[in-house]
Automatic annotation (TrEMBL):
Pfam families: C1q. SUPFAM superfamilies: TNF-like. Residues 80-89 have a biased composition (Pro residues). Residues 54-64 have a biased composition (Basic residues). It comes from the Eukaryota. Residues 1-19 form the signal peptide. Its main location: secreted. This is Oidioi.mRNA.OKI2018_I69.chr2.g5307.t1.cds. It is found in: Secreted.
Length: 263
């Protein structure tokens, strides 16, 4: 037990000695008889002058607390902010040359935006969806016939076509473009009879151009097709039945829909 206490005592003395100068170091430091050499941020080497023997002693400078300044006092609390200074001055010619171009450009941008907003009309909102829900549809006199869908779910259009307001017509079965632009159309078809084929085509009129087609040869087979097309005001798109019979059902197995994509 005494041996353990002796070891602790020696360790405490060694720690105290490390924090202070050695006797030789105190002598050299008091007489300023040393050469100072910085080794690192926390250690320096002092070499004695006028001594034939090369003796060196390590010196560790005392640590300073972060909240103390060089004089040893504590840093006080932060003061209140001072009053605002006087407004700055700028020569008239310098300020005008710097501000006027930016201000005039901003006014031009605002005027251009207002003109564009006034020139642009309300964006077109055109969409429709129709289907066969009441009875089957078949060809007339065994010739290609425009399919007329009896159930109109949505038929919204803006603008005026060349011969009346555009949109889907439940009388003719055609969709008339109320404004010029790109449109997207989708057609679904389901054959009614098991042994008869169905052939449906989506056409653009009056050029009579086929956009997409559907053929069904299975038992109550369902098919679909879609297409993008650019239409002018007054041009129209319709679904033509070339062969077979389309099934009319409340579940709307046969539909025709389209919408305005953009200019």
């Amino acid at each position: 037990m005494k041996f353990v206490l002796l070891i602790f005592t020696l360790l405490e003395k060694l720690s105290e000695c490390r924090q202070e100068y050695t006797p030789y170091g105190r002598l050299i430091e008091s007489n300023k008889l040393f050469h100072h050499k910085k080794v690192s941020a926390s250690r320096s080497i002092h070499k004695a002058r006028g001594d034939n023997k090369k003796k060196s002693r390590y010196y560790r400078p005392p640590r300073q607390r972060k909240n103390e300044n060089q004089e040893g006092g504590r840093r006080g609390p932060r003061g209140m902010p001072g009053p605002p200074g006087p407004p700055g001055t700028c020569p008239e010619n310098v300020c005008r040359a710097a501000v006027e171009p930016q201000f005039s450009n901003l006014l031009k941008e605002i005027a251009t935006q207002l003109e564009n907003e006034n020139l642009q009309s309300t964006p077109a909102r055109i969409a429709f969806t129709v289907g066969l829900s009441d009875k089957n549809f078949t060809r007339v006199n065994s010739k290609p016939t425009t399919v007329v869908y009896d159930r109109v779910i949505l038929n919204q259009s803006t603008g005026e076509a060349g011969f009346g307001r555009g949109g889907y017509s439940p009388i003719s079965g055609a969709f008339v473009a109320p404004v010029e632009g790109i449109y997207h159309f989708t057609v679904t078809a389901l054959q009614n009879e098991k042994r008869k084929q169905v052939f449906v085509v989506l056409t653009k009129q009056p050029e009579d151009v086929a956009l997409c087609s559907i053929t069904s040869q299975g038992n109550y087979q369902s098919s679909s097709c879609s297409a993008f097309v650019r239409l002018k005001v007054g041009e129209f798109v319709q679904v033509e039945l070339l062969r077979g019979v389309l099934l009319g059902h409340p579940y709307l197995f046969n539909t025709f829909s389209g919408s305005y994509y953009g200019d």
